[in-house]
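Here is one chain, start to finish.
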Amino acid sequence: MADSQLSTALRPAHAGVHPVHPMANPGYGKRTAPDQLAHRPDDFAHLPGREAAVAAYVDRLPDGADISVKTLAKHLPYGQCALRTALNNLQAAGHLRRGREHVAGAGGARWITRTWFTRTPRDDAWWAAFTRGDVPQEREPPTRSRAFILLAALGRTAPALSLSHADCVTLGPLVTRWFERGASDDEVRRALTTGLPTPIHSPAALVARRLRDKLPPDRTPAPRRTALRILECATCGTPGRPEALPGGTCAPCRGKQPRPTPTLTPAAVHAHATATRAAANRPQEAAP
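Its structure:
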């Protein structure tokens, strides 16, 4: 049953079952969370059939696609109520979060409603780091650095500059300084291979000297602005800190604590405001 639902949900638009999925208004819609693992056939095998079908469909949509319940109901074989429950279940499983993000544009800064989706399920700690703009890296670091790879490949561009493994390790920090100043791989390669003398007695010494003498000025961009994001409860929409929304749901909606009630009713607030205005307009009594 789940396989047939997944097949129906993912049937291509040109088959005549579903029209092309629409995009949301500019700045809204689906947003892909960063640092996802590569796609695999069993990405959503841990989910029930309906949730797996919805997740697989949303995963294939581009950023900016309209993934509201109303729109999804027009493209998937589920009603709005079922889709709302499925999206909440995807949120609880760590595939989705709703919230707001502070963005700056030509017209000024404003808060934008966001729906972030990731095929790789994330726990609450990951989402908390994401709201701070500090995405934890889960992948294994490469065994060879970018600088090492560039130096090791120099011999293919200029055979006279073939370096040993030890040379690449020793010279790596000098190349890294170029990268830290905004230089590209091609810029470093050109600086090392253009106008070579003949013969070259010590390739490592020549490369080291050029890396030091031709070091460019710092061209790195200004530091990236810290991300401003707020998560919201999937049930009531109340914004809150990530720590207060485990699984994307606030404590009152999880039944963990009663929802706070206002200390003053609207009628009482109105009465206090009326009394305050009357007191402000009343003439002051003369002092004896």
